[in-house]
Design goal:
- This protein is α+β, with helices and mostly antiparallel strands.
- Helices cover 57% and strands 13% of the residues.
- It folds into 2 domains: 14-69, YefM-like fold; 73-113, no CATH class.
């Protein structure tokens, strides 16, 4: 059932286009027509939930929907929220630069200095 995804130039939903491109480049996902997805839906949902399998469902050969576990979906949403916040992305880059420069602090020392009981 694993197949290479075709290069798609036109998908109705822009968010699906973006997700399709990301998933195509970073994972091997399964593509199946909606008729096959209907027949195997309980199995597909079980595999998505337990094995984190992901499926692109096509209608007339065009990727139209994605089936994935709730945990994967929530992870995607959280990533999109982070990446859409320029201040947060900047803070992440700043933290990465601090790590490269070894500009870090010992957590145990911080807790002691600030009387934190964490």
């Amino acid at each position: 059932m694993r197949t290479r995804l075709p290069i798609v130039t036109k998908i109705a939903n822009p968010m699906l286009t973006k997700m399709y491109r990301i998933m195509y480049h970073y994972t091997v996902i399964k593509t199946l027509p909606i008729t096959k997805a209907r027949e195997e839906l309980p199995t597909l949902v079980d595999k998505a939930s337990k094995l984190l399998d992901e499926y692109v469902i096509t209608v007339n050969g065009i990727p139209t929907a994605i089936l994935m576990s709730v945990s994967e979906y929530e992870s995607w949403k959280e990533t999109m929220e982070i990446l859409s916040d320029p201040q947060l992305v900047s803070a992440i880059h700043e933290g990465e630069e601090d790590l490269k420069k070894k500009k870090v602090y010992d957590w145990e020392k911080i807790k002691k200095d600030f009387h934190l009981d964490v």
